[in-house]
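From: lab user (bench 3)
To: helpdesk
Subject: output format question, protein + zinc ion

Hello, I'm new to running complex predictions and I'm not sure whether the block I got back is the full result or only part of it. Here's what I submitted:
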Amino acid sequence: MADDCVYRTAITRLDVSDEQRALLEETISEWKRGCQIATDLAWNRCQAKSDVQSLAYDPLREQTDLGSQHAILATHQAAEAITGCIERRSRGEKASTPRFTAPTVTYDSRTLTLFDDETVSLSTTENRIRCPLVLPEDDDGFQWRFLDSERWEVTESTLTADGDDYFLHLGFRRPKSNNQPNTAEDGTVLGVDLGVENIAVTSTARFFSGRELHHTLSEFEKTRAGLQRTGTRSAHRTLEQASGRQLRTVRDEMHRVSKGIVTEAVRYECDRIVFEDLTHIRKRTDDAWGHRWAYRKLYQFVEYKAERHGIAVEQVDPADTSKRCGECGFVTDANRPTRDRFECRACETEANADYNAAKNIGLRYVRRGQQSSRRTGDGQLALKSGTVTPNSGFTAYPDGFEAEFTDKRRCGTTPPTPSDAGCWSHRRS
Ligand SMILES: [Zn+2]
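Helpdesk reply: Thanks, we reran it on our side. This is the complete output you should expect:
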């Protein structure tokens, strides 16, 4: 695990001929078989990459059509999968023997070469093939960001099949500026807005409705207020029973929402989940005790669920985040004609108000990193359609990224660090 590097993944579709498609299909199939053979050999015997490699390399060369480097990579993949299983079990989670079913194959700098003419050459079970990358029309951002840059080098990458289409998840890395520990400056941030109508909305436009919860909590608060006025011993007992039941419902709901938020952060390869400062939330919820309790629970649940994925959870001052335009930065009360709508007076951006706030909360954190004295910032905010940084602007995910999100994370190949879903930069200068 090279913690002294910043990782980015750029996803691009490949333009492949029928012949190349057949070769890639065959390579993926042999790769899955190879990983499985290596895993079955090493299971209960070893888990270190070097051990699995020396145990399984020869059998892989004999039993599959994988080339030498792909055979080595397959043994490493097996080692990672086994290690992942053992770790999950040590945490008391269920983990069955790894099965390699995802239509993917791993590449490294020996098996993949990127060329300046926007083509890539890939090792297959037979010859190397060379095919064009299908870049978005405005591809100068991509060139600028990774290919033409001395700073970024290609690292482990993954080829994924989706029907007849092939997507390359190009891994890039560069050394961290002045060897700081992983900070906001170098990460992808998921902003989260908390509210009543929507209990949570992420900067990637995932909405968690708060209607049910609001109903439960209102009932609870009514019961609570009524019984407290009564003040008798039996009223207390009734309160305890009622609160036990209702708070359990809220707790379950907060578990569900926290899981959703963390899943969203993992899916968009975020390093940080950023909430507004919880002490400020009181103002927006009319001092409702139940809601504040719910938000505190939610925050705690997100924090401990995120930790398992190496994702940090932070809070920022939410001042103006509800009336600032997430697109142009213009701030005025008039940007919020109703509680639900956001309509920027300056740039005419219209959005759901909570979604706009979620973007602002995330951006505030990213900007904080960029305004630090070191100015080493390479942080970005995860949006549904791409990422955004304060300096270089919006970066769209290429077509197909959305489809990719529906795939299960490939077994045993989490990136070396929580990496960032950085893609093509469409610079708005
Ligand atoms: Zn605006």
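A quick orientation on your result: The domain at 188-377 is CATH 3.30.420 (Nucleotidyltransferase; domain 5). Let us know if anything else is unclear.
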